[in-house]
Amino acid sequence: MIFLFFYSFHVTSKPIELSDVVEELFINEHVSILQVASDDVSFENAFIQYQQGQFAPNIDGKVSFGFTHDVLWVSALINNSTRKPLKKFFYLDSAWLDHADFYFIRQSQVIEKAFTGDAIPFSLRTNQTRMVAQPHVFKPGITQVLMRFESKDPLLIPLYLTTEEIIQSNLEVTNYFYGFLYGAFFILFVYNIVLSVSLKDSSYIYYSLYLLSFLSLNIAYTGHGFKVIWPENLFVQRWAMILFLYCYIIFGIAFCFEFLKLKVYLPNVYRFNKTIYACLVLLVVSLFIYADQLLAVNVGVALTSLLVVIFISLGFLALRNGHAMVKFFIPAVFLGAGGAALSAATTWGAIPYNTMLFHSIEVGMLIEMFILALALAFNLKQVDKARITAEVIAQVDHLTGLYNRRAFIVNASPLWDLGMREQKTFSMILLDIDWFKTINDDYGHAVGDATLKSIADTLKQHIRNSDVLARWGGEEFIIFLPNTDKLAAIQLANFMREKIEKMVVLHDGCSLSITASFGVAECNNQMTKLEDLTKIADIALYRAKNSGRNIVCEIPENLTSIDRVVGQSQPIS
């Protein structure tokens, strides 16, 4: 019997020499396996089938057994050729196994057994690491390890024989990686929440929820959630990853619809958005009621794969219809999907298992999130640019390119306040084109517009950078002159009057002469606001109009009171 037992060892798999495992050894290709379609196969039954040679050598090092209800029995032979016991760990780089049971056998007798996995509260694990890590002290000679694995998620068993030091080193590296990953996602999440609140743009809030969903999904399937957040709640551990997967799908669709602005660029697609959301919610509720975990995962993975194709297709359609932001969306989704595809292919066993390939979904999603964050930042820049442009347009007279009345007050008021505090001298010029109504009536509004633009250009050429020039309204222009007394203002007004008088506006081969009347005012100690100075300049302009036009007028020194000036002046009819 003993001969038959050891003979079966050799025909099934070759023992792993423990003394050769200095640090870490990937042992999948050194084990033999039995995949059964029922969980009714007990340890005793599995052991008998092993002795009968029904375990098959895993010579190609298969890691993934896909989405299945099957139970996987794995046998490994460990030979300690030294004279002293050696402690090693069986370590699985997978955090979603429902059952991982270990039986250590010597001479047909079970000398130790351990049960772990997500079907057991985390506090009851022998070794409370995020991944399955089962220690054993191997005595000299051959020890058989019979392992039973079962999972409602993809059955993935990357199995290593390693040391506690290597496990701790690997955990330290992964802690840095996930610390960076979660930190980056959290910063992006908070940043976009703030943007969504301040800008009231739904695309930012959906992007935030999309980020939060993936972050929660990652925390669930990497085992961080079970270890830290819900270590005793088996129901949450069973369904959390599935719930977050569907949240990721739903908010991904919502973000896609808003980011691509399908309401504008693809309205025929956008009108189905509420129907799509309702169907997804109904699907999720139905799957939870049916309570088939494996079915829910399969449907979620299928939907995720389908959505990638749909998103990229919608992106190209929106791009064709003129949506410039899609140039960020398409490569982001492609890279994110590429990472997910590599992870999925590794999980399914389509490509050889590799730790980096297995975690490529996280790298791909991180790249995708940063590209989309850049896209939203670019969008924010465009919005801000449009806002600034709108503000500039709101302050500028569209015909002459000068400030309008509102912008004049905004820009001149601070100079007025500063001058009043420092008791500086400043003046105001207000001018009006003579007989402008006649120009419009006789020659048309096009000539009138040309006249206004010509005068605006002339005025701009002869003012200082510190002066504030604006179109006051109609055919009137106004200039605020800081640090300028009335005499200098009058000289400047006469200079500009002469320049305007020499101007010629051409119309149908004929030349049209233009003149303008000017009113000048200087600030005095009776004035308390900018409007007071404007009123005096306006009254001086009335004087110029009533005095024959094409002249510069001021208010006499003896009329220092604003009320007296207004009382002695008659408006032009």
In short:
With 573 residues, the chain is an alpha+beta fold. The chain has helices at 2-12, 43-51, 164-199, 202-221, 224-229, 234-259, 262-265, 267-270, 273-290, 293-320, 326-348, 355-358, 360-395, 405-422, 436-443, 445-461, 486-501, 530-546, 562-567, and strands at 16-17, 24-26, 32-36, 56-57, 71-80, 86-92, 99-106, 109-116, 133-138, 141-150, 159-162, 426-433, 468-473, 476-482, 504-507, 510-513, 516-522, 552-553. It has 19 helices and 18 strands.
Number of H- or I-type helical stretches: 19
| Gyration radius, in Å | 41 Å
* Helical residue percent band: 40-55%
- Quaternary: single chain
Query: Beta-strand level of the residues, as a percent range?
Result: 15-25%
Mean pLDDT, rounded to whole units?
85
State the separation between the terminal residues, measured CA to CA: 129 Å
| DSSP summary, beta strand count | 18
Dominant shape: elongated
Please outline the major beta sheet.
Answer: 7 strands, mixed
Low-confidence stretches: 1-11, 564-573
Q: Structural class of the secondary elements?
A: alpha+beta
